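Internal QA ticket QA-208
Title: Verify multi-chain structure generation after dependency bump
Assignee: T.L.

Test input:
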Amino acid sequence: MTLNGALKTTLSVLALSAVGVAAQAQTPLSLWYHGAGNPVERDVLIGLIEDFNTSQSDWVIELAEFPQASYNESVVAAGLAGNLPDIVDVDGPIMPNWAWAGYLQPLDLPDGTTDGFLPGTLGYWNGELYTVGLWDAAVAVLARRSVLDEHGIRIPTLDEPWDLEEFDAALTTLQASGDFDYPFDVGMAWTGEWYPYAFGPFLQSFGGDILDASVPTAEGVLNGDAGLDFGDWWQSLFDRDMVPGVSQDAADRETGFVDGNYAMQWNGNWAVLSALETFGDDLLILPAPDFGNGPTIGAASWQFGVSSTTEHADGANQFIEFMLQDEYLAAFSDALGLIPATASAAAISEYYSEGGPLEVFYGLSEAQARLRAVTPGYLVAALEFEKAMSDIASGADVADTLDAATDAINDDLERNNGYQ
Amino acid sequence: MAAGPRGKQTLTGWAMASPAFLLMLLFLITPFFLAFGLSLTNQRLISPNPAEYVGARNFENLLGLSFFVLEPERDEAGEVIRDDDGAPEYPRLRTFTRNNPDYPHLDGMREWMSIGWTDDSRLVLLASDVVFMKALTNTILFVIVVAPMQAGIALLLALLINQKLRGITVFRVIYFMPVVVSIVVVAFLWRFIYDGQNGLLNSMLGFLSFGVFQPVDWLGNPNTALASIMAMSIWQGVGFHMIIWLAGLQTIPVSLYEAADIEGANRWQKFRYITWPGLRNTAVLVLVIITMQCFALFPQVDVMTRGGPLDSTQTMVFQAVQRGYERQDIAGGSAISVLLFVFVLAISLTQRWLTRDKD
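Actual output:
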């Protein structure tokens, strides 16, 4: 995949610079993107870039694509070497770290450009808008109506989600049926940002959080009573064989629900299309359970910003403004199943229009989405949280593990003067 | 005339060597000293704040150890409180190690291991960085197991293929093949072999034992994960060292073996008194190379387990990369690199001394 990605990057740079040579008056602007290896995503982006390049005569965008797994490291390395591109693509929760480090500059868009955008698509830090996304993502419980009906499990709604007991009872019932390898799948195979993105909201719903960005500290937040309750419940999922453990195979994660090995799955809207094809009307997209402190899911996906070192901030801002047209929001949504950032784009999209099969995600995103801690310290905190989730799942002592993660997060905050 | 052709030759020599010297200075020696320097600061990978000199704090954080005697809980009469199985109950360690003003020296430390002490109390070994301690012990364990096994198996293979038989080259190629494939690719493939549910290894063991064998989650179980990585690493590296042994074997004059044949020596005697002494320098080389490679254990862990489960496959280099790059703590990563350098140097010098020419 890496090799493939590198090849594609080279080819796309070549192809687009050829365009640049043809129109000599245009100043090149470099754009780095995290989605190498996905041909559908690439086609949409290339189409958008070509539209922009031909729509005006000042700028020409040169795209370089990276595999997602090594994207952040590539940008950090480029920043250290002073070779940042003009326009960067950045994962929402990482944005404050890069803004703090001086890699990004605030956006300079005409007033009203981002009116009506979902809150998760707007990257604010220190009161300034640094990044904006064309889409948001949402996570939901995927299930099948026929399976829930067969086992007499109530189908939850946004107004009345499952609570802890009801959810646990549902898992127990499904496990007892013996029809499935596991009643639920949380996706332990997806190491990395998936852990804090997908499991952090469980902790928030219990009443804790990874850290309190306002102090900032993790003491009493991650390892407080709510954190310990969450940790015990999390460990019990694995102890009782309710969900596949840390050594889950990535292929099982992709196909386990569709193949019927998992009764339900905690998954993102980007992965729903294959389940929709298989199950059609039988597929249920259910809201996150409420573990006591309200149901929550993570907000913010990949967004675009302008690097601090660019000599052409005006061109970069112009391109980002161009991207934010409903037409392109809908195009990305249609290609990848992502949630369009505006209601008007949702209305013209295939999946999120009135009565569309994924429309429910728009409601989930509006009702349940909560931003991950907005602080440059999130980067290290998220890694510590990932390790804690993985260790607890493997049987480590809950309190000791959360204490260790808390200490590591607070050490990092202290070493950086609280990222002030 | 005095500074004549000789001096000119020296100058030419230096001039010709200078590109190599310059590159070594730039890419080997400078980073080496940089790591030393950075390990004494709080340098971040990216940060708007300037780095500050912090002395040996990074090393203290890594290496801090402490003992603590944990007394069991007692009721008002002073009797030890026991659970249903009769085992004494202990207070949580975190009540001593977290924000307890009576034990400031234990603050932030965690239990690394503990043993039974006198009268139901337990002696607990606390470390300020348990993950690093596990990385250190895992790395040393890896060296102790892999170095002799890999060297031994490689020698055995070299002896086997050092024969003049038809088609022996085929075997040489087969044994050497894993070395040619990138370790990252090998690690990916072995992940499928070790898969806990339908991996090749589980299927094979199940088939051979007529279904008696229960599948083991090789990489997901803290008891088997490191051993699994060891087995794979030995398999992957053995071909390379076999070639070095083979080169050593082929420097031993055939006439010695012919003389031994005339004297009526058996196979073992020939190995013991001709082959082994003849391989002396090769053995030193192979051991030093394997030891250094083992200390640098990283790609297998990065691809297969990322240090888990429960830190059972943490290694020093993996931790250095994790901290320096992913957690943006270059100073902490440098400190681990410096410690690693000290260990490798100490062990290599000891090996060199143990295997020195005693004559």
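Spot checks passed. Chain B has two domains: 65-128, 131-354.
Status: verified.
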